[in-house]
Amino acid sequence: MAGGYNGKLLWVNLSDGSLSTEELSELFCRRYLGGAGFVSYYLLKEVKRGIDPLGPDNKLIFALGPVTGAALPGSGRNCIGAKSPLTGGFAKAEVGGFWGAELKRAGYDAIIVEGKAERPVYLRIHDGEASLHDAGHLWGKSPKEAQNSLRAELGDERIRVAAIGIGGENQVRYACIANDLRNFAGRGGLGAVMGSKNLKAIAVRGHKMPAVAQPEKLKEYRTWLLENITLMEGFRKYGTGGAMERFEANGNLPIHNFRDGVFPDAKLISARTIKDTIRTGMEGCFACPVRCKKVIEFTEPYPVDPDYGGPEYETLAALGSNCGVGDLKALAKANELCSAYTLDTISVGGTIAFAMECFEKGLLTTGDTDGIELKFGNVDAMLEMIDRIARRKGIGELLAQGTARMAQEIGGGSQAFAMGVKGLEAGMHEPRLKAGLGLGFALHPSGADHCGAMHDELFSAEGRDLERMKSLGILEPVPADDLGPRKVSLLRYIQQGRSIGDSLVLCSFFPYDYQQVAGIISAVTGWNTGVVEMMTTGRRILTLARLFNTREGFTASDDRLPARFFSPKTGGALSKSAIDPEKLEKAKHYYYLLMGWDRETGVPLPETLEELDIPWAVEEARA
Amino acid sequence: MAGGYNGKLLWVNLSDGSLSTEELSELFCRRYLGGAGFVSYYLLKEVKRGIDPLGPDNKLIFALGPVTGAALPGSGRNCIGAKSPLTGGFAKAEVGGFWGAELKRAGYDAIIVEGKAERPVYLRIHDGEASLHDAGHLWGKSPKEAQNSLRAELGDERIRVAAIGIGGENQVRYACIANDLRNFAGRGGLGAVMGSKNLKAIAVRGHKMPAVAQPEKLKEYRTWLLENITLMEGFRKYGTGGAMERFEANGNLPIHNFRDGVFPDAKLISARTIKDTIRTGMEGCFACPVRCKKVIEFTEPYPVDPDYGGPEYETLAALGSNCGVGDLKALAKANELCSAYTLDTISVGGTIAFAMECFEKGLLTTGDTDGIELKFGNVDAMLEMIDRIARRKGIGELLAQGTARMAQEIGGGSQAFAMGVKGLEAGMHEPRLKAGLGLGFALHPSGADHCGAMHDELFSAEGRDLERMKSLGILEPVPADDLGPRKVSLLRYIQQGRSIGDSLVLCSFFPYDYQQVAGIISAVTGWNTGVVEMMTTGRRILTLARLFNTREGFTASDDRLPARFFSPKTGGALSKSAIDPEKLEKAKHYYYLLMGWDRETGVPLPETLEELDIPWAVEEARA
């Protein structure tokens, strides 16, 4: 069947208020797919070297993908990208909810926001019509207030809103963007970029169902998922965070800034405990029957607004165990605050934990912390920090810069335990348990992002993931702590495959294998595609992101882990486990080779760019 | 569905007459697949460095694959391999007919023949029982006489026979092995190896249908083929060689030892002319509805035995246009002679054409040629040469060594037009028209084998092959004369994909795309496999073959084309086209990189061997 799949891009210039649309050809869409692929393309193509991420020359890209808005679970998502104010390099994040599907129905596949508005504005998109409007009355408000206000004044309760809170307005370097209040494009400071442009929100409403080339075939994948929904039983029952105790036991749980191995309160902050205590229900994203998102409610000792949802695993770990906090209600409150302020909870938790360790080591004193006893386990201090970060008040001004800049300012050897890569605070999983995850942290273009990483233990024993691995030609289990060539090969496939998921844009929790994902692409677009094309497209996308970072001055030496991961944890299951830095280096260079990047420098080879149908990038990389 | 697919190997030691069987595990079968994969594995593992290809230390490997004997067109085939007496390196060839399917039904998936029998023997396999028998009465006979004799004395007209004629017995370096009289494992001198072992024939009979994991799914692929049989209309109508005139016009047809571009008699030797003149019918292989094999018959000026079938394109070109011969009946006779003697028609044609050019240049004289006027177009000389080669009589002794050894002996700059690679005479297609074919000739482990090569023009315009290419992520046509990175990437996929076809062992004429082939593997074995695994397995197989050659002393400098391809043809469509040797070198080294071989030397990297699950090969390569 012929495809005919194509796309439509909305250009928004906030400096002069102009709006225009551009048709995206089928070839373009097949080459860059959507979501993360579009972001990688446009960041390299449109954002010039060395620009200020928080200045008008940065561009904020919202991108949907082929499955967005289709009748398939996990298809309400979108990807957002920009040059990161946190890392100075490539940043992208995916976000769930309903906004993505609504934008597709409104007739667009991507938005590029350029320039900077003189005064706060919001962008409205309604059935193919786009317009900019004053948002002075929304500035300083939470996403919830902004959304309610927009729905009321536009007279449509079904408008979907992507917005920032004061964290974004104040350009906290790790501010995020909220879809539908409860879903966040978290990593890399995209909310700060949105704030720097004086763009408060994008309000979307559409009524056109997206075309699907082979609806019957697509239905088969939906049906398969429904028939195999038990594969997602844990998510349905608890959402993320149900494995908290297991993670504490096996060493995966970050504790006290990734330092320690024992946290007896793990059970108290588990999603199982949430279910038994503060949870009032579960909610889902567009078209998804899984409903993995917690709804919580309580009023004592402080009220928590149920509209912001409950904390995910990453939040529970980052602000909980990693800060030594075992107070579940405080974590729920922290989650609400970060949501209302649009702050990335992983970076918030990472910077607070880092500050706590600095405080305990005497590198920060009460003189620096506005008098606050910033110790691990200090619940009130943790909550107070969130507020100060969002407002960049007192010590919050320091923390709002992220751990990498903090370590530079604080000095005293603190870089060794500034737990991030390229300036992005690490996701809440443990490289000393999962070596491939560590390699992924080191190599991910955004920094230590767990979303593009692997969970090695899934490939070390029989199971669905091992079967998926076999379909790549890696036929026997690969030990979790292995960093040999099979692990490297597996990681690149996982990263490439994840790049495709992030381009479709499809939720990463679904248990589709690679053949099924290729089948889904085929069903939606009509292309006779397969997993090799998927992997090639993934390599193209990762190579574009790599070129972006290379152009910004990143080198192989930036593909490194903080020194802490090279020593064991204090206590617990990993008290004798550490990453071997030499093996990591060797693995890194083999990864370069497999990607077609210079084996020594990690710079994509000109031949690779030609091979990947992106010869234009040769010049762009030199620009 | 669980797989459970596995295999059974028969070890035959001709030196001591011992026979034994070995079970091949499912993991082994998945890793090396069968056919070409088994050959690559066992040649590296079992044949020691530097042994005489025609001595008892060489091993002759017959291997079936997962689809062999299944109810699927093209599944009657098998692969045969050994160290080549022609190239001194890796040799394998696939062969059609019925013998492969019969061996599968007899309960075996592979045979390894070791040592050397004191006197001529044949191997009999009957429903899982193997035995060696005296073949003194068959020695000196044609495959037809041998087959008839065996069927009569064993009292079973349905016995299938693989056998050699006197070319194999006399160890002509490019003797081949015949299945069912009409199908040949042609390239590399496997028949000479069989002859050197005093093994005349393998007679097989079996009654056990091979198991298929998902018969209904397999049936879908058979049905698809039957429903799309028009895709093979040319083959059904003419067999190979129907495009002879087109090939002459576009320059693909080798003429006068690849020297010239015009051959007005092309029409006379076309399969279209065969259909209109000497053809009496068409025949097919096991389970195949296409029936692409010509049956011919005539009695004047000499009788031709219809049991040997009619000439294929490669034969018509090698002994026809390439020797300047436009006499169709002479070519049919030449084909019969080569069949009865079991000589590879491509190498026969290549050596005769080379000798003719040497003769015309005065590098050979009638003093060398037993008085024969060995000029291009001399029909009688061509026929006479075949006889002398098979008997190694007079000038035939020289020609029986192949062009590479001839050029060494003859000297006088003749190497520049000794049209082979690594000593294997080139298949009858033109690198100056199809640059990727040239690159494939240079890189194929067997030498200038057209079977593992590509036909570039298929990927330079819209059509099924371009669609197949797109499914690999190469989205736009690649010009036929291009040698850039996209072409290199395409070639390696084609070579890897062909390695899978040769391992299954599945006929290469079927228009299945890669997804379908993966589906066929899955249907037969029950493995949840896909095209990435196929390509990885293909890379594993090619890497094993590469290591075999490396161990035998081949280096990157052996991956080269004869100098003639760097200059245009005399006259015709390619009178201004040539391969650019610098571009070829660059492409070669990028190919190494994509394969995970050292980019400079072409030696597989130790990391690649680990990645490909063949760490044992690290040691083996050093042995």
Oligomer: homodimer
Question: Could you estimate the helical fraction of the residues of chain A in percent?
Answer: 25-40%
Strand content of chain A: 5-15%
Poorly predicted regions of chain A: none
Q: What is the number of strand segments of chain A?
A: 16
On the 0 to 100 scale, the average pLDDT of chain A is: 96
- Span of the ends, CA to CA of chain A: 41 Å
Morphology call of chain A: globular
Number of domains of chain A: 3
Radius of gyration of chain A: 22 Å
Structural class of chain A: alpha+beta
Attribute tags:
homodimer, 623 residues, alpha+beta, Aldehyde Ferredoxin Oxidoreductase,  A, domain 1, Aldehyde Ferredoxin Oxidoreductase Protein, subunit A, domain 2, Aldehyde Ferredoxin Oxidoreductase Protein, subunit A, domain 3, 3 domains, six-stranded mixed beta sheet, 16 strands, 39% helix, 12% strand, globular
How would you describe what is shown here?
The structure is a homodimer of 623-residue chains. Chain A has a six-stranded mixed beta sheet with strand order 2-1-6-3-4-5. Chain A has a six-stranded mixed beta sheet with strand order 8-7-12-9-10-11. By secondary structure, chain A is α+β, with helices and mostly antiparallel strands. In chain A, 39% of the residues lie in helices and 12% in strands. The longest helix of chain A has 21 residues, at 531-551. Chain A folds into three domains: 8-205, Aldehyde ferredoxin oxidoreductase, N-terminal domain (Aldehyde Ferredoxin Oxidoreductase,  A, domain 1); 236-425, Orthogonal Bundle (Aldehyde Ferredoxin Oxidoreductase Protein, subunit A, domain 2), CATH 1.10.569.10; 435-622, Aldehyde Ferredoxin Oxidoreductase Protein, subunit A, domain 3. The mean pLDDT of chain A is 96. The interface between A and B is large, with 44 and 44 residues.
